Structure to design on (363 residues):
């Protein structure tokens, strides 16, 4: 068994302790939705309620949102806990998972914590960071029980279409494995969001939350979609982590879901303003190479020359600006930019990034 002495997530420690800045381009989600903008009265809230294996009205709403039956839904504290439950329910210690690269580090850290061996399949920049099912087939082994990817891809924001996911599903099926798709950024397609990939078959498992696309991180409204038998297994694993969810959070999540169009409208407006600003920033920089994602809140440019660590330090020390260094995603020459923040903050942040890049040019 691997040691748990050194367990911990460098990325999460960065996100919690070092990503904050006046001009924050490191955050990957839409800025917080204010509670006062949700139509609710205190009478609609309560401290305790029947949330044992999920709160039925919340399960029903999430089932409706995702076009599945409520027994396929497991609620969890954010996509983070949803991923933990999904990984723990589909893998045994000593088995193997095949994970996309670059990757959201928490997936790997959780797999290691669970005693699962990790292999990678690459998503190459020269190939637009797309998922190549043939590459997945080349990398899968007889020990692989789970293929893991994110859609939209974190850190690049690239969308994987259903046909590709179906092809990955076929590779998994042939090898007696499943596919876990973390769809937390897919929510940012709003009304254009494709159906959750669970509809492609029982060998798929989906995780998501209201965190990234709606600015509702504080609700911790996450979920897993899985076949009912697997979902039951996750509920039983969840028993080890707590008796029930925070009931007021479940009630607020229901209210948010009942008003999701209003919440989404604000997020879409923000992105409509910020995306062209990002586009014109990127077009103006010959020192960056990038794949422009069509949707979502993030992009993952490559710094052609110089060090991202140096740029990060300069931004912090001289420009009150933060970025997401690519080393946390396994690609140290890249950095992640988020465009879900306040438009003025984002505009000035990008300007400052440009000024810092000008300073370091040729160094
Ligand atoms: C791919 C991915 N999954 C999950 C999470 C965590 O989501 P949540 O805040 O809903 O736990 C993140 C946050 O950065 C993420 O990028």
């Amino acid at each position: 068994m691997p040691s748990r002495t050194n367990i911990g997530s460098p990325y999460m420690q960065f996100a919690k302790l070092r990503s904050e800045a006046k001009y924050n381009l490191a955050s990957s989600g839409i800025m917080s939705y204010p509670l006062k903008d949700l139509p609710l009265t205190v009478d609609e809230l309560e401290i305790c309620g029947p949330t044992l294996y999920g709160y039925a009205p919340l399960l029903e709403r999430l089932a409706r949102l995702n076009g599945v039956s409520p027994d396929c839904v497991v609620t969890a504290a954010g996509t983070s806990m949803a991923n933990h439950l999904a990984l723990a329910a589909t893998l045994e210690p000593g088995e193997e998972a095949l994970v996309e690269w670059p990757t959201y580090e928490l997936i790997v850290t959780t797999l290691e914590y669970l005693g699962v061996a990790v292999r990678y399949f690459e998503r190459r920049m020269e190939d637009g960071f797309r998922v190549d099912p043939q590459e997945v087939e080349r990398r899968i082994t007889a020990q692989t029980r789970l293929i893991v990817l994110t859609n939209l891809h974190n850190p690049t924001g690239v969308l994987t279409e259903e046909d590709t996911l179906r092809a990955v599903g076929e590779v998994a099926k042939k090898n007696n494995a499943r596919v876990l798709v973390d769809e937390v950024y897919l929510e940012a397609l709003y009304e254009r969001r494709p159906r959750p990939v669970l509809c492609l078959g029982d060998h798929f498992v989906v995780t998501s939350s209201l965190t990234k696309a709606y600015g509702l991180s504080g609700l911790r409204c996450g979920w897993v979609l899985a076949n009912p038998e697997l979902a039951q297994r996750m509920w039983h694993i969840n028993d080890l982590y707590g008796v029930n969810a925070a009931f007021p959070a479940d009630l607020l999540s229901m209210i948010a879901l009942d008003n999701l169009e209003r919440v989404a409208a604000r997020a879409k407006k923000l992105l409509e303003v910020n995306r062209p600003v990002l586009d014109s920033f990127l077009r103006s920089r010959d020192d960056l190479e990038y794949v422009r994602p069509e949707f979502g809140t993030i992009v993952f440019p490559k710094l052609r020359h110089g060090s991202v660590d140096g740029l990060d330090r300069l931004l912090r020390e001289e420009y009150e600006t933060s970025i997401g260094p690519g080393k946390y995603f396994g690609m140290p020459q890249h950095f992640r930019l988020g465009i879900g923040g306040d438009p003025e903050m984002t505009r000035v942040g990008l300007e400052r990034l440009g000024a810092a890049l000008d300073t370091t040019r040729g160094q």
Notes: The first strand starts at residue 23 and ends at 24. The two ends are 45 Å apart (CA to CA). The mean pLDDT is 96.
